[in-house]
Amino acid sequence: MRSPDPGRRETLGDMNRLRRWFPALVVACEIATILNGLVVGWVSVWFQLFGDTADRDDYLVSTGGYAAGAVAGLLGLLALRRLEVTSWVFWLCAVGAGCLVPLALSSLSSAGSADDRGAGIDTWVDGAGGVLALPWTWVVVVLGLLALVGRGPRRATSP
């Protein structure tokens, strides 16, 4: 009878450690995505240089940033539910992602009533691109879509 390979056992131990840290990594990506949506949405309207005020284009970029952060955050909640994170972490992320929805709607409403002084080249796609350009957003989106179809990683169980 052959004895198990000790090197293999150590590799499996490393994998189990990685599987235990994986939910924390996904939570960090979820929080970073929500905060990024908040920053893109807020900065595009409220950070104006040389005494300028926000115009229609700025509000559209803000709408895209808030909306992309909200959609990615809500998709990430599916992954967090599948990974069975603690309830307070899940609800913290749910509230964060949920707060971006009224902010996006408010920016969209403000875009309709703002001055149309801009060149008309900035749209909501620019704001969404600011959120979707970052790698941690794609971790959340891909894992959320996998969870939506019933696949993807699950919480590691104790051996």
Envelope shape: elongated
The arrangement of helices and strands along the chain is HHHHH
Please bin the fraction of helical residues. Answer: over 70%
Kindly estimate the percentage of residues that lie in beta strands according to DSSP. Answer: under 5%
The Cα radius of gyration reads: 20 Å
Query: What does the main sheet amount to?
Result: none
Low-confidence stretches: none
β-strand number: 0
**Structural class, from secondary structure content?**
mainly alpha
Terminal CA distance reads 24 Å
Total helical elements: 5
Mean pLDDT equals 81
Assembly state here? single chain
Keywords: Membrane, Transmembrane, Transmembrane helix
Protein traits:
159 residues, mainly alpha, 5 helices
What does this 3D model show about the protein?
Keywords: Membrane, Transmembrane, Transmembrane helix. The chain has 159 residues and is mainly α. The protein has a domain of 106 residues. It contains five helices and no strands. Helix 1 runs antiparallel to helix 2 and helix 1 packs antiparallel against helix 4. The protein is elongated, with a radius of gyration of 20 Å. The two termini are 24 Å apart.
Write a compact overview of the structure shown.
Keywords: Membrane, Transmembrane, Transmembrane helix. The chain crosses the membrane at residues 21-47, 59-80, 87-108, 128-149. With 159 residues, the protein is mostly helical.
Summarize the SSE layout with pairings.
Elements: H1 6-46, H2 56-82, H3 87-113, H4 124-132, H5 135-148
Transmembrane segments: 21-47, 59-80, 87-108, 128-149
Keywords: Membrane, Transmembrane, Transmembrane helix
